[in-house]
Amino acid sequence: MANQTTLTAQNDTRSALGMAAPALIGLFLFVALPFTLAAILSFTNLRLGSPLPTRFIGLEQYTRIFSEPSFRRALLNNAIFAIVVVPLQTAIALGLALLLNRPLRGMAIFRTLFFMPVVFPMALVSVIWILIYAPGANGMMNSFLDFITFGLWEPRDFLRDPYLALPAIMLLSMWQGVGFQMVILLAGLQSIPSDLYQAAAIDGSNKWNQFRHVTLPQLRNTLIFVMLVTSILSFRLYDQIEIMTDGGPLDATTTVMYEAVSAAYQQQKMAKGAAMTVVFFLVVLMITLIQRTLIKEERAMD
């Protein structure tokens, strides 16, 4: 009997490994291997086209990038972007999900309309928003702000203003990405048992108390997941910057990914770009570990 149990366990292990093999191979080829190569490169002085031989220089690349004002500004911009966009976009997505989680006619059309910007290529979205942010009184955004302020708004060049460029990128990113969060939160709302709301209504709870004590606790893990993904995307911010501002003006919109790509492909400093990507990976890893810790705490409380 014991031998049969051991044989069954071995067969289950082989089956599990066989089913997990494609995912494990993909993780190795597209995550572990590139990160390992980038980490190795970051300890060298590799530069394309340089006549100097490649040699090991230790942590010198990291010392260099953290001593550069542009890279420190890129980290700050990513942090500001995440601090503003993640909670604000999540709140808007939750509000939309609550509005669309109703059995009304035509609701599927509204869900599609809100989700539609997500499927548009970021290059197309960026070009459209360049037109929206066009400078001068005839620009769409300037005209709208002039209308709602009854002529008090002075036309601005949003993408070339050091104080408005990053907020302009934030607005674009929230408009484009809120539909993705909305769909995930909508699925989370629809998975909440209706019995909980019925019990709360019997106890005399109003809609606000039901939202606080039923909806939010049941959506905790979904909200953590959504905020994690949005945080990672915040540090991956690149396409909008490349197309709309080139990191300017005065590094007001530069990001870690933009600096890494510029170092590797424009300056041909492959080791420098690799060091920046390692820093990016470690930041994302830290965010992921925080998310896992929060989920573990939630399970322990349950």
TrEMBL record:
Domain ABC transmembrane type-1: 75-291
Localization annotation: Cell membrane
Membrane-related topology note: Multi-pass membrane protein
Keywords of the record: Cell membrane, Membrane, Transmembrane, Transmembrane helix, Transport
Predominant subcellular localization, coarse grouping: membrane
One of the Pfam families matching this protein, by short name: BPD_transp_1
Source species, domain of life: Bacteria
Transmembrane feature ranges: 21-43, 79-100, 112-134, 163-189, 274-295
Family in the record: Belongs to the binding-protein-dependent transport system permease family.
PANTHER family, per the entry: ABC TRANSPORTER PERMEASE PROTEIN, INNER MEMBRANE ABC TRANSPORTER PERMEASE PROTEIN YCJO
Official protein name in the record: Sugar ABC transporter permease
